[in-house]
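Record type: ASSEMBLY
Status: queued
Input:
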Amino acid sequence: MEDQWSRWGLDLHVHLRPGAGHGLRAGLEHALRDAVRSGRLPSGTRLPSSRALARDLGIARGTVTQALDQLVAEGYLESKPRSGIRVAPQPTAAPPVETAQPPHTTLRPVRGIDLRSGFPDLAAFPRREWLAATRHIMQTAPNTAFGYRERTGIIELRQALAEYLGRARGVSTTPAHIVVCAGYAHALRLVCQVLRHLVGSAGALAFEDPTEPDYPALAEQMGHRARRIPIDRDGLIVEELTNETAVVVTPAHQYPLGVTLSPARRVELVSWARRAGGFIMEDDYDGEFRYDRQPVGALQGMAPDRVIYVGTASKTIAPGLRLAWLVLPSSLLAPLREATRWDESSVNVIDQLVLARLIQTGELDRHVRRCRARYRRRRDLLGEAVNRHLPHGRLSGIAAGLHAVLRLPADSDHEAPLLGFLAERGIHVEGISPFYHRPQEAPLAIVIGYATPAEHAYSSALSALVRALRERM
Amino acid sequence: MEDQWSRWGLDLHVHLRPGAGHGLRAGLEHALRDAVRSGRLPSGTRLPSSRALARDLGIARGTVTQALDQLVAEGYLESKPRSGIRVAPQPTAAPPVETAQPPHTTLRPVRGIDLRSGFPDLAAFPRREWLAATRHIMQTAPNTAFGYRERTGIIELRQALAEYLGRARGVSTTPAHIVVCAGYAHALRLVCQVLRHLVGSAGALAFEDPTEPDYPALAEQMGHRARRIPIDRDGLIVEELTNETAVVVTPAHQYPLGVTLSPARRVELVSWARRAGGFIMEDDYDGEFRYDRQPVGALQGMAPDRVIYVGTASKTIAPGLRLAWLVLPSSLLAPLREATRWDESSVNVIDQLVLARLIQTGELDRHVRRCRARYRRRRDLLGEAVNRHLPHGRLSGIAAGLHAVLRLPADSDHEAPLLGFLAERGIHVEGISPFYHRPQEAPLAIVIGYATPAEHAYSSALSALVRALRERM
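Status: finished
Output:
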């Protein structure tokens, strides 16, 4: 058999072994496709008759005919009257290149002690509760639940979110103003589209300085101009705003500095929005976690007609869920419809039903309460350790959230050598400079995410960090 | 108590009843927020002292102080030395408007007999299998699974898809070329972005005529020009293409006509792509369902360097999953990285892990096989019913997919009255004209989706349709 086939440059021997679920016919097709694709059977090559093939291969002629018919239908072979079956003209495939797209550098998993900000404790993921909610959905959801659903999110979830956000975050809204999104970047992209539709062209978006640098970059990619507005101890310096289309802020716990927007600035910011006709995009990424008092209510509650509120499950549950929600002012609902006119929803209905269920049953609240107590203890331990062992360091941003900022004395190492020194010891924290528009003007400080390690690993992670820092401060 | 409060225009009586989980302090805060928001307490109003408030309300002064502090922090009140606590300046909220965003008209659930195309049998949703896979994930996934993951989809799913698509659809690819998307519209949007980055500006995209009209509209919204290319009995008339950036086709089963792209046209189309430097976007929406033979392999297998393949779980499992996948030529990987540089993944990792598991365990194949057998029976019943009862009708597009086209004789009702007549009887099918660029030039035909009814309801749905059509043909 191999001798016969070698005439055609084919190595069918290998492929004709029927594998799991592959019959002889599938094996023959596979081998022929491969031979055509790889160029071993060049275009124009005339194939032996089905009779000859069947004989050579020792399989039924019908099987061969079916396989050849299939490949003719797929365009690998062509069958012309009186000239038999030939290999059809084929383009040669470019060799495949292996290039995965990992998450952004700062979000990739690291080996060792992970004290970067932006992550909750993934060991706390409510696996049991997620599974129980999924079971409930699978047992009770009507068949129509799995069809095409509302593009802004299913009503069950928007109702649950309206109630939850009103109760837990002081958001004043209705389900009609809520848009379920596939994570924060998706929400920001959508807002950029909506603002474009509103003003008929690209506008200017203001961002805090420091901030997560990907967000202004995304706004610029969407055609908007992006400005940076500095932060002081009261939060965004509102008077630096002019006539921007919108300003993106983190009022509950500035990212990454950890400042809370002061009461006076909250009012000032809303006044700016009213006066300038601008919008405030409130990124409430960790608003559920406040330790010194009950959470400060969302800015949105003060001006539902001017504030675009964004919340996410990334910090309360896990980033992998890719679940976020926008609360839009009424005046943006029509531009939203326009901007998303040809889209479908981007979020799996099962996930939406599961989240709605977790809210309705109180599981989300219980989970947030458990995490809040856990993170508060970690924050306290961090504060004590700094007080005791790093007297020249100054910890800030500790009233809320999942991270704090440690300012280092002027005679410490510069940021890069310090981070390098820590990384050599397997300790991963972030410097603050990448968050600044002009990194060279950043203060000397590191950002410590205290939520990331698993509960049992936190104390030793903290000790290792403090020990290493003592050597350099 | 009410008497005292009426001085301040407040109806605290109502809100101060502590509800589930709300203490007196929360009740007081809620009432005050509400009063400020609604304008019942106008800006500048001076509040009574905390001592007086506590006495009036009959609650501890500490509780009142805490509530007032909270509202100062949230910007509802302001506290100035020597002038006590006043209501801070407040914008008035616009009244909320109730406007949900349902799915596109043709995708909304209907009452009665649903024989529209575009839906699988939702009663066949593999609830047990989905739950079992979720359980497996919750029991075995490492914590890091729930963090930020690869933006193009997690490797577990891309590996499973590369294997599945190679085996079931003849797609020639590697995990690095696969991008997991949140449904077809998201995939098309992404391709529009990628093509823009590739050529540095908007280009021209060709679409089949007829086609789902939302897709050319989406491409135009993304800045590209959109052309329509007519279909004949061999599929897309390739020679009508000129120098488009890309052409979007449904080779396995043209949507909605149901034609299969002929072998000669497949080769011709790939030749066009090579010659013109254009790309072919292969929308393989129902490629798994072929009844007269084994599925025709994807066009992608012939020219992985020129074909952008898109598959989806919408027809094989359910549209509500919002799961689709792109297979990109190597030359588009760098433009993809550029276009999605600031994005995160849009798809929940749990769903990705579940789908990967369903593929790995063979559940997806079993599900597709079960559905294929079911849909084939339905198609056969439809064919028999038309043959027997509607001899003047001509059924086409029945070799594959979840829908067929019934051409009506020239003396039938026009489309709109016919659809109206059917709808009055509770029967929902689609006319073909909305799919055409010039609806007035469309043939007289209806599109019958035979997958949608639940299994037990199909025979009676079919009988009702045929009975009603007999009256008008």
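Annotation: DSSP finds 16 helices and 16 strands in chain B.
Annotation: The first helix of chain B runs from residue 2 to 6.
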